[in-house]
């Protein structure tokens, strides 16, 4: 593994960024709480842009309220706007929780939002509505930072009950709704009661409605989140994000629950680790269905080993996603020649362990797509794995792109792409192999129909 | 049923014409109302985005640039620089110590790398707050690099999207009038306020060519810096998206004496009217007769298929919600051509005059909405039994969740909807959605796509 050999030329400009801003991540995380409305304390544009962007991926209604800062609020402070905004949201939506996130604007004018929220709490009868605040200036970290900050803020604000209930907490990170559904199913099949923070498996991938609701069905209820302090353990599928932002670590410190920060369970080894952990807590072996899934996956590994061995992949996206996929690729004999993710975690530090034995894997933090283009031209990957944002470059280089992560807005079903556990890995594996086969056919003069 | 927020009641007109037209509009969005509207930056970015040989640098944290990366369907016949997302990506230390130095370095670096014809630097919210002297940095870089580096005062909090349009027009006015106008015909015009979504401007230019008119510049669809510099040499400005471009048209009238026309290229009626008006303004009897021939040829070529669609769509009910108000008029007329009644109409940025005109154009009981939100839209979709929503990406999930057809008429679409063939595409789009059999499976559906179909 080398990092230094392939540094791109230093540059100041960000040219086609690989990451988005913190309030977006916070909004997605808040969407995974039942009857929760994300609320941005800042300008109208931030809420609208984030809505538009997330709608393009999830293709679901995405209501995000804002304080609609104008010049006056920017100069004299946004208290009136915040109070007015919260009152309007409460009267129209009657939410169980308002997930308030700040923006670069409100942070920079020095708004003390927690104090304002406290004042608001004193001044009105909130009834059952909870208010949670995450400080998410967009110049600190990325959308992942915002996501984790919202998760941590929710755990801090809600997890109060210490009565033991034998369940566990799972902080899945920013994975797809379908991945979350799969994790829930495993827990259900093992008889584990799991509090997922967040759980947008239904809220951001739901059914058609007979009439419009203020909130989509689903999400983890506030009452369940309140009980997080009484769980047996917390499992976080994010090991690269900033440990300071770990909700599992917070619950460990405050409520004494063991915290497991494991990576994304993609690939047999990583999925085993996750499944073993769950089955250990359930006190029972994994149901046979899952061992069959695992067996089929191994069988597929064998069937396709020649197609993938030595093939070079370029993986980009969020740190945990990228390293999870990188580790899986190493497991099947592919070479993750370039893994890039946003800054803010400890990617390079932990990459050594994860990609041990993989030669020539370049791990790069904070790259933009112009950097990726430079490196890709040099490293000549056979395949791209990541969001839709790599499409232009993949097309330019004539390599297939397996879409995964966020955003996938040039294909249907971004919310239904799976990669975790045995079944998720199976889907990803098939997609990778088939993309390579399809590419071989496309490149062939003869066009064999029998590969 | 969903209640309209108290402070928004005057922005909704549902009592029919008798209720009067004194709608409240042109105001900041109400906090907490989940407005469909964006910000000043959005307004500027939309307008200037299609200038393809300019560098568009967003000065601020990463979000504003990331959300507008290659977002629009604005096509270029040459350079593709507009499709890149450049950002100063301000970080904490830049916010504390100021972003001017970084802006200088980023600008210099990007200009050296991409050799643009000019550069636009968009100020975002935070830049307004930390007080970077963007103007001064632009001046320095402009001097050093020998190209126009133009600041766009688009701090998000400085008003609504409309103020962003004005900021864009101000930026454009710095380019107009800076090049020689030799060789420009008397029969010439600038196309303002068409953004070449899916190549629409190429079609409009072709109409003008057939009429015998020279197009000096297109502002800003398929726009080029050097053409915009010469725009003051044209005899007429033809403004489509008037919300965004009237400021520039007025400025050019004052400064260069160029008259302007407000037109729309959407729908048979408005498209034809636009061509006739231009012919009257610029041409002679010969041009008028060429225009008549053009219009009758084009209309004849699409009518048979259009009639087929009308037969299938007759009786359907639509909700139209767009960014600018002027476009709503064309939509209402185009839908009428297809036998569809507009039961709800509104825009993000309409003014009183727009809504008065809209009220005149629509039916007695059409609901008018200014700066609305998902809950209101959903309420009227249900109450009015809407079969079709015309809007942008943010309105789409509201339609689809409720099992209602949707047609994207925003900047992100990839289908040409302007001109005569555009009208046919529009009809096809509407038909494809409204008459899809999937709706009959939806939990809320009372299909009345009517006509001879049902």
From TrEMBL, chain A:
Domain of life: Bacteria
Start and end residues of each Nitrogenase/oxidoreductase component domain: 21-436
Gene3D superfamilies named among the record's database cross-references: Nitrogenase molybdenum iron protein domain, Nitrogenase Molybdenum-iron Protein, subunit B, domain 4
Gene Ontology molecular function: nitrogenase activity
Keyword presence, Transmembrane: no
Keywords for the protein's UniProt record, in alphabetical order: Nitrogen fixation
One Pfam family per UniProt: Oxidored_nitro
PANTHER family, alphabetized: LIGHT-INDEPENDENT PROTOCHLOROPHYLLIDE REDUCTASE SUBUNIT B
Similarity section: Belongs to the NifD/NifK/NifE/NifN family.
Protein name, per record: Nitrogenase molybdenum-iron protein, beta subunit, putative
Naturally occurring in which organism (per UniProt): Dehalococcoides mccartyi (strain ATCC BAA-2266 / KCTC 15142 / 195)
Automatic annotation (TrEMBL), chain B:
Keyword tRNA-binding: no
Pathway per the UniProt entry: Cofactor biosynthesis; Fe-Mo cofactor biosynthesis
Keywords carried by this UniProt record: Nitrogen fixation
GO MF entry, a single one: nitrogenase activity
GO biological process, one term: protein-containing complex assembly
Superkingdom assignment: Bacteria
Stretches assigned to the Nitrogenase/oxidoreductase component domain: 39-434
One Pfam family this sequence matches: Oxidored_nitro
Keyword tRNA processing: no
Function: This protein may play a role in the biosynthesis of the prosthetic group of nitrogenase (FeMo cofactor).
Family assignment from sequence similarity: Belongs to the NifD/NifK/NifE/NifN family.
Protein name (Swiss-Prot/TrEMBL): Nitrogenase iron-molybdenum cofactor biosynthesis protein NifE
Organism: Dehalococcoides mccartyi (strain ATCC BAA-2266 / KCTC 15142 / 195) (Dehalococcoides ethenogenes (strain 195))
């Amino acid at each position: 593994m080398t990092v230094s050999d392939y540094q791109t030329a230093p540059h100041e400009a960000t040219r086609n960024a690989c990451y988005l801003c913190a309030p977006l991540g916070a909004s997605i995380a808040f969407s995974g709480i039942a009857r929760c409305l994300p609320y941005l304390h800042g300008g109208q544009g931030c809420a609208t842009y984030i809505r538009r962007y997330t709608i393009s991926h999830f293709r679901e209604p995405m209501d995000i309220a804002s304080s609609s800062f104008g010049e006056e609020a920017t100069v004299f402070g946004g208290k009136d706007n915040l109070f007015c905004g919260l009152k309007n949201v409460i009267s129209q939506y009657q939410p169980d929780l308002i997930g308030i996130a700040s923006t670069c604007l409100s942070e920079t004018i020095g708004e003390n939002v927690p104090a304002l929220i406290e004042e608001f709490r004193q001044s009105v009868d909130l009834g059952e509505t909870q208010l949670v605040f995450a400080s998410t200036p967009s110049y600190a970290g990325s959308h992942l930072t915002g996501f984790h900050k919202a998760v941590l803020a929710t755990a801090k604000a809600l997890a109060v009950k210490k009565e033991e209930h034998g369940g566990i907490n799972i902080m899945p990170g920013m994975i797809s709704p379908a991945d979350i559904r799969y994790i829930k199913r495993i827990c259900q099949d093992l008889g584990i009661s799991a509090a997922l923070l967040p759980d947008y498996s239904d809220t951001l991938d739901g059914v058609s409605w007979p009439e419009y609701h203020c909130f989509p069905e689903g999400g983890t209820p506030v009452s369940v989140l309140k009980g997080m302090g009484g769980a047996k353990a917390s499992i976080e599928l994010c090991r690269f994000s900033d440990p300071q932002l770990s909700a599992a670590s917070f619950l460990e410190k405050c409520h004494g629950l063991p915290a497991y920060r494991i990576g994304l369970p993609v690939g047999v080894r990583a999925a085993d680790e996750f499944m073993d952990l769950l089955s250990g807590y359930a006190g029972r072996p994994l149901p046979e269905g899952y061992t069959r899934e695992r067996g089929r996956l191994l069988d597929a590994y064998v069937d396709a080993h020649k197609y993938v061995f030595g093939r070079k992949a370029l993986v980009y996206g969020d740190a945990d996603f990228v390293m999870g996929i990188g580790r899986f690729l190493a497991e099947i004999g592919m070479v993750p020649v370039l893994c890039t993710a946003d800054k803010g975690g400890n990617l390079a530090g932990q990459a050594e362990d994860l990609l041990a034995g993989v030669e020539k894997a370049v791990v790069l933090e904070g790259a933009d797509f112009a950097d990726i283009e430079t490196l890709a031209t040099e490293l000549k990957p056979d395949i791209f794995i990541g969001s839709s944002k790599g499409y232009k470059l993949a097309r330019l280089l004539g390599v297939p792109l397996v879409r995964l992560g966020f955003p996938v807005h040039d294909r249907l079903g971004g919310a239904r792409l799976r990669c975790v556990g045995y079944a998720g890995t199976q889907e990803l594996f098939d997609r990778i192999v088939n993309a390579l086969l399809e590419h071989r056919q496309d490149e062939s003069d003869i066009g064999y129909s029998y590969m | 049923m969903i209640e309209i927020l108290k402070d928004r009641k005057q922005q909704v007109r549902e009592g029919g014409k008798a209720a009067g037209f004194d709608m409240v509009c042109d105001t900041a969005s109400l906090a907490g109302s989940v407005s469909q509207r964006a910000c000043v930056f959005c307004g500027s970015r939309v307008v200037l985005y299609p200038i393809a040989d300019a560098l568009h640098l967003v000065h601020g944290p990463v979000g504003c640039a990331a959300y507008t990366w290659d977002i629009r369907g604005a096509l270029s016949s040459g350079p593709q620089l507009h499709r890149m997302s450049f950002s100063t990506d301000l970080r904490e230390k830049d916010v504390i110590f100021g972003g001017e130095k970084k802006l200088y370095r980023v600008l210099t670096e990007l200009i050296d790398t991409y050799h643009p014809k000019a550069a636009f630097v968009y100020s975002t919210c935070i830049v307004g707050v930390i007080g970077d002297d963007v103007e001064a940095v632009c001046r320095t870089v402009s001097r050093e690099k020998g190209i126009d580096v133009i600041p766009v005062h688009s701090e998000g909090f400085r008003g609504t999207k409309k103020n962003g349009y004005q900021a864009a027009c101000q930026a454009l006015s710095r380019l107009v009038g800076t090049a020689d106008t030799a060789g420009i015909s008397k029969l010439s015009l600038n196309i303002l306020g068409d953004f070449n979504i899916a190549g629409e401007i190429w079609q409009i230019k072709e109409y003008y060519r057939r009429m015998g008119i020279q197009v000096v510049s297109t502002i800003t669809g398929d726009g080029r810096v050097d053409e915009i510099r010469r725009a003051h040499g044209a005899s007429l400005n033809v403004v489509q998206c008037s919300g965004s471009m009237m400021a520039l048209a007025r400025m050019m009238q004052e400064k260069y004496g160029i008259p302007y026309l407000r037109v729309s290229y959407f729908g048979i009626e408005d498209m034809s009217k636009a061509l006739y008006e231009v012919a009257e303004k610029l041409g002679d009897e010969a041009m008028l007769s060429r225009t008549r021939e053009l219009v009758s040829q084009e209309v004849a070529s699409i009518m048979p298929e259009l009639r087929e669609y009308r037969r299938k769509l007759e009786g359907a009910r639509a909700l139209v919600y767009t960014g600018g108000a002027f476009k709503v008029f064309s939509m209402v007329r185009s839908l009428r051509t297809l036998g569809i009644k507009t039961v709800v109409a509104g825009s993000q940025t309409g003014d009183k005059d727009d809504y008065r005109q809209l009220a005149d154009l629509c039916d007695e009981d059409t609901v008018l909405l200014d700066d609305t939100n998902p809950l209101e839209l959903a309420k009227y979709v249900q109450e009015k039994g809407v079969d079709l929503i015309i809007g942008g990406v943010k309105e789409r999930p509201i339609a689809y969740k409720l099992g209602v057809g949707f047609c994207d008429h925003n900047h992100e679409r990839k289908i040409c909807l302007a001109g005569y063939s555009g009208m046919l595409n529009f009809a096809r789009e509407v038909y494809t959605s409204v008459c899809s059999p999937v709706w009959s499976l939806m939990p809320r559906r009372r299909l009345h796509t009517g006509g001879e179909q049902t």
